[in-house]
Amino acid sequence: MFGIWAFSSPPSAAQAQSPAAAPSGNPAPRVETVHPTQGGLAKRTSQPGSAHSFESAELFAKVSGFLKEQHVDIGSRVKRGDLLAEIDVPELTEDVTAATAALKQADAEQTQAEARVSSALADQKAAEAKIAQMAADVQRCEAEVSLAQKQYDRMSELNKLKGVEDRIVEERLCQLQSAQAAQRAAQSGVSAAEQQAAAAASKVTLAKAEQTVNQAKVTVAASALERAKVMLSYSRITSPYDGVVTCRNFHRGAYVRSPDHGGQIPLLAVDRTDQMRVVVRIPERDVPFIQPGDKATIQFDALPQRKFAGAVSRIAESEDPATRTMLAEIDLPNPDRLIRDHMYGRVDIALEESLPSVTIVPSTCLVGDVANGKAKVFVVTGEQAILREVLIGNDTGVSLEILSGLSPSDEVVLRPAGGLSDGTKVASTAAPAVAAKTH
């Protein structure tokens, strides 16, 4: 950002011959003047920076084996999920086959266990039904015993009265004894049915326990299958995001070692380049002023005709004690992929915008020392150099910000001589064009 000083016009010949001019024997000292430029100094910092891929990944083989296929090479454009390489690991394929068979076996055993549970439950229900049946038989036998007892008692009374023969009484006694035996048999049947029901309940408990064990076996087998599939999937190297292949260390047929088997060289490397990180280190003097969102302009040495506009995306909030600088990053879109990883350039960051209410003069206009933000300059009024106190702001060593005390119409002495004093008559001329740089 440049501001061009405004200057007063050179004196005319008539002015040079005016009566106000000093006698020829003692001419008035000649001074160069400038007009203050409207607007303050924008505080900026310009630092070297370098571009880096927004994301970068080194892709290692998770499993060791021979490189079966490599579908990409350096410079290949890839999409997220694209298959980049395949490693031949036949034992992992066999592990998947074995784990699949083990899972099928566990499923079959689980089905058998479920069938045993169903069978045991059916046996238990049958035993419980038999208990009910035997209980009904007991009740029937009790009724028959009661009937036989009554018939026997009646025949016995009739026999005492000589109403029936002894033979009939004996028959009724035999019937009573037979009914009592049947009753006892029915009661024994109830006990046996209860025992069968208890045994059936135990079988149900055992069958359910076996079912639980087989469920666990199914879970273990399914987990083993998933693990085998995951291990097999490691033989397929895929891209983690859209980008470009920047590194290839092996060729088809080479034996590739996984990191846990001592492999320390990545198979491939993929960089995301649709967006770049421009990394810049901010010197300590500018650290208090930089914030995320500050506008930035980047120009790379390799692309001198292009300027890229961006903004500070993040700052480290901590200085490096070795360099007394703080890391800042600028996210820069790279749709045409002109910016390459590690490109070097210059980063110009606007830390503070200029204030339109102040003016700028060259730093050489100052007279004497600065104290408490106050200084003095000579202003030409009429034909006299008047010493005026001004309040100063930023000073770049080339340009000086005047907060109050001057206006754009004032003629300020550019380089006041040592003998110049307040009220001295002077002859002023406009200074040659001088450009004031902002910092």
> What's the β-strand tally?
24
Count, helices: 3
Task: Give the N-to-C terminal Cα separation.
Answer: 9 Å
- Strand portion, in percent? 25-35%
**CATH topology value of the largest domain:** Helix Hairpins
- The figure for the number of domains is 3
SS-based class: alpha+beta
Description of the structure:
The protein has 439 residues and is α+β, with helices and mostly antiparallel strands. The chain folds into three domains: 2-42 and 356-437, conserved putative lor/sdh protein from methanococcus maripaludis s2 fold, CATH 2.40.420; 45-75 and 252-352, Elongation Factor Tu (Ef-tu), domain 3 (Beta Barrel); 92-232, Helix Hairpins (Orthogonal Bundle), CATH 1.10.287.620. It is 33% helix and 34% strand. The protein has three helices and 24 strands. It has helices spanning 13-16, 90-160, 166-233, and strands at residues 2-4, 30-34, 37-38, 43-59, 65-70, 77-78, 83-88, 236-238, 243-248, 255-256, 268-283, 295-300, 308-320, 325-333, 344-352, 359-362, 367-371, 374-381, 384-395, 399-404, 412-413, 424-425, 427-430, 435-437. The strands form five sheets. Strands 3, 16, 17, 18, 19, 20 and 22 form a seven-stranded antiparallel beta sheet that branches. Strand 13 and strand 14 form a beta hairpin. The radius of gyration is 54 Å and the shape is elongated. The termini are close together. Mean pLDDT is 84; it is low at 1-24 and 435-439.
